[in-house]
């Protein structure tokens, strides 16, 4: 995905973070919500500089959202805050997706409805969900093996790329 963006837009700067997994479990905790300053704002300011704005925001969350504990109200509120700290420019393209994993119906529907309500782009991964040829099955650890392999990541990147165009 990053090479596609950089080839199409040589001046672009791509920031990404692995803090999403923490967000997926902390979004519903009103006592200890995600620390946006530490997780996102400080790293983005270091990367982009002060007063940064973004043209494109890709939200890749959902796999680690616990279905039995899903809280739609807190989810929407914290997703608003997460996108806000990305400081999108007016007219920026914001893209969210559903899960690569099955049994995430609550968050999948929430992402789709959220995107529709906000006027954002929704990327639907239903066609590639749980495809065995897209799983990292070469690993013996079941949790790792359930993740997308290189082909799965390429498929997700293709969905994103098509949504960006």
User: What string gives the helices and strands in order?
Assistant: HHHEHEHEHH
Which class do the helix and strand fractions yield? alpha/beta
Characterize the overall form.
globular
Task: Using the CA coordinates, give the radius of gyration.
Answer: 16 Å
Helix content: 40-55%
| Number of beta strands | 3
Instruction: State which percent range the strand residues make up.
Output: 5-15%
Annotation field: number of helices: 7
Chain-averaged pLDDT: 93
- Low-confidence spans: none
What does this entry look like structurally?
The protein has 165 residues and is an alpha/beta fold. It is 45% helix and 12% strand. The protein has seven helices and three strands. It has a three-stranded parallel beta sheet with strand order 1-2-3, sandwiched between helices. It starts with a helix and ends with a helix.
């Amino acid at each position: 995905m990053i090479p596609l963006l950089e080839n199409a837009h040589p001046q672009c700067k791509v920031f990404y973070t692995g803090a999403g997994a923490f967000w997926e479990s902390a979004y519903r905790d009103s006592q200890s919500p995600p620390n946006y300053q530490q997780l996102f704002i400080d790293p983005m300011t270091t990367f982009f500089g002060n007063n940064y704005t973004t043209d494109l925001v890709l939200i890749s969350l959902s796999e680690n959202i616990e279905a039995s504990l899903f809280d739609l109200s807190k989810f929407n509120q914290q997703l608003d805050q997460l996108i806000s700290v990305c400081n999108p420019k007016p007219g920026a393209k914001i893209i969210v997706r559903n899960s690569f994993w099955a049994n995430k119906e609550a968050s999948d529907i929430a992402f789709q409805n959220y995107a529709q309500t906000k006027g954002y782009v929704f990327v639907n991964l239903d066609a590639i969900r749980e495809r065995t040829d897209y799983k990292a099955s070469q690993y013996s650890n079941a949790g790792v093996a359930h993740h997308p392999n290189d082909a799965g990541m390429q498929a997700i990147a293709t969905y994103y790329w098509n949504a960006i165009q």
